[in-house]
Design brief:
Largest sheet: 9 strands, mixed
Structural class: alpha+beta
Radius of gyration: 19 Å
Strand content: 15-25%
Number of helices: 11
Order of helices and strands: HEHEEHHEEHEHHHEHEEHH
Helix content: 40-55%
Bound molecules: Dihydroxyacetone, zinc ion
Number of strands: 9
Length: about 270
């Protein structure tokens, strides 16, 4: 079957990175049923011929006007689609959309008219915010990492930066590869405007934001990098839990060891 990705190797590579990541999310047990979402800004890979293509859907409202998304194109997981299916058949379980001129709607320009994720308004609001703040981040990821979600069932870890300090201290790489730590937003209804607003606010200080008792929202340059940040944080949570399962509270790296790491890797204090 002919695909919009044919003859567009750069665009295809970016979309296959999303598919590869979706496979990891499933393998890790972070993506039950249709859990999680991925949205990537693919504008830089869109050529003139693609821009001239007719849409395969009518214009659909985003539910918000997002002025910084003028001229932008995105690839998004489809609503009710599964990560494990996206991994093998990205263009049947996700679609390419282009934002309309007035920045309040979108049209599908893809192989099949797969409707984008129900979380599209929050993902696109985040991308609008990233562009407005001059960020070069192109990917947003929402997933349900088991051990990180488990931590949020304890009030202690909901206090500002308590979880971050514990996670960084489990293994030196965590701070090196997730230098801004883990932001926390209090429990909010999934898909709500309130949750989107709280996420955007937290993203000014963190690349990975934990939605209490639900999952994480991560942003980075590309989808692999966003996944890696969540992966290193969850690895630390697993080490913490392994130690607790052996019957002790882990010591964690000392303040001196953390300071030495921060200096050696030129990380933010
Ligand atoms: O889209 O995980 O929180 C599925 C979700 C929403
Ligand atoms: Zn979710």
């Amino acid at each position: 079957m002919k695909s919009i990705l044919d003859g567009r190797p750069e665009l295809a590579a970016e979309i296959w990175k999303v598919a590869e990541t979706a496979g990891y999310l499933w393998q890790k047990g972070w993506a039950e049923r249709n859990g999680g979402n991925i949205t990537i800004n693919i504008t830089e890979f869109v050529d003139g011929e693609m821009r001239a293509m007719a849409p395969i859907s009518e214009v659909k409202p985003i539910g918000a006007t997002l002025p910084h998304l003028k001229g932008c194109w995105f690839f998004c997981k489809g609503t009710n689609k599964r990560m494990r299916d996206l991994a093998r058949r990205p263009m049947e379980n996700g679609s390419i959309i282009r934002i309309t001129e007035d920045c309040s709607g979108y049209e599908i320009i893809a192989d099949q008219p797969v409707l984008p994720t129900s979380e599209l308004p929050s993902h696109l609001s985040v991308h609008d915010h990233l562009i407005a703040s001059g960020s070069d981040y192109k990917a947003s990821l929402h997933t349900h990492p088991i051990e990180l979600v488990a931590l949020t069932h304890n009030k202690k870890f909901l206090e500002k930066d308590v979880a971050t300090r514990m996670l960084w201290s489990m293994i030196p790489e965590t701070k090196a590869f997730c230098p801004r730590g883990l932001g926390i937003t209090p429990y909010t209804l999934p898909g709500s405007v309130k949750l989107a607003e709280a996420t955007i606010e937290a993203l000014s200080d963190y690349d990975v934001v934990m939605w209490e008792k639900h999952g994480v929202f991560a942003v980075d340059r590309d989808i692999m990098a966003a996944f890696d940040q969540v992966d290193v944080l969850n690895k630390s949570a697993q080490i913490y839990i392994a130690a607790r399962n052996m019957g002790f509270e882990p010591d964690g790296m000392s303040d001196e060891q953390m300071a030495e790491m921060t200096e050696a890797f030129h990380l933010p204090k």
